[in-house]
Design a protein that fits this description.
Strand 1 and strand 2 (108-110) form a beta hairpin. The longest helix is centred in the last third of the chain and has 21 residues, at 192-212. The protein has helices at 21-25, 51-54, 73-81, 85-96, 115-123, 139-144, 149-152, 155-173, 177-185, 192-212; strands spanning 103-105, 108-110, 130-132, 137-138. With 214 residues, the protein is mostly helical.
């Protein structure tokens, strides 16, 4: 993830909700989509990423991420967790630029050419904090739920895990920039400035994606 300071603490850990292990282990989350609202007519102010921005309706699939000929993975995951597809896509753009094998180890980004090479990197990490895949899922989650990194690197599973984490952050911190920042820092209170800076990057990505919609 960008700005990887204090990786050892696990930048996502404080925004999690208790979930049954089987939900995550199987990578199949069974949650009802929450009510969706329309997109904001004007961009939200920098000081407050609005509810409309976080929870906008999904009328079309987003295009940037298409893996193995399967378009709409962001739309599918966003719908499952009651999120905006473009908001979820904006996070992925910031985290990995949609690179499916992206790895970050203790703040250092790696972009291997294959899944095999990505797995080799984390095997050699020897207990360090690392992030994996499109949504840069932190090793805190992988260890907490005893997940298989091979499965976490599957792009579809990775996006759904990222959607679950983002949904957890919103449920914990509310529908605003604090929740978006928490996806990166884990604690938007003690790491307020970092959280806000990250949220504003997501906002810019979000606006770019919204503008590009047909």
């Amino acid at each position: 993830m960008s700005n990887k300071s204090n990786k050892q603490t696990g930048h996502h850990w404080t925004c999690g909700l208790a979930l049954s292990g089987y939900i995550v282990l199987c990578g199949l989350f069974i949650f009802n989509s929450l009510g969706l609202i329309g997109r904001a007519a004007t961009p939200p102010a920098e000081e407050n990423l609005s509810k409309a921005m976080v929870m906008s309706e999904m009328r079309r699939p987003v295009k940037p991420y298409e893996y193995r000929g399967r378009p709409g993975v962001f739309s599918q995951a966003a719908h499952e967790f009651g999120l905006s597809a473009n908001m979820l896509s904006a996070v992925a753009l910031q985290e990995s630029s949609y690179r499916p094998w992206a790895v970050n180890i203790n703040g250092r980004a790696h972009y291997p050419a294959s899944k095999k090479e990505a797995l080799r990197l984390i095997t050699n990490a020897r207990g360090k904090s690392y992030d994996l895949g499109v949504m840069q899922i932190n090793s805190f989650w992988i260890r907490k739920f005893n997940l298989d990194p091979v499965e976490v690197l599957d792009p579809d599973t990775n996006v759904r895990l990222g959607a679950w984490i983002l949904r957890s952050c919103i449920d914990r911190h509310g529908e605003g920039w604090s929740a978006i920042g928490a996806y990166h820092t884990g604690d938007p209170v003690s790491r307020k400035e970092q959280s806000k800076a990250y949220a504003l990057k997501i906002r810019r990505n979000f606006e770019q994606l919204e503008t590009a919609r047909p």
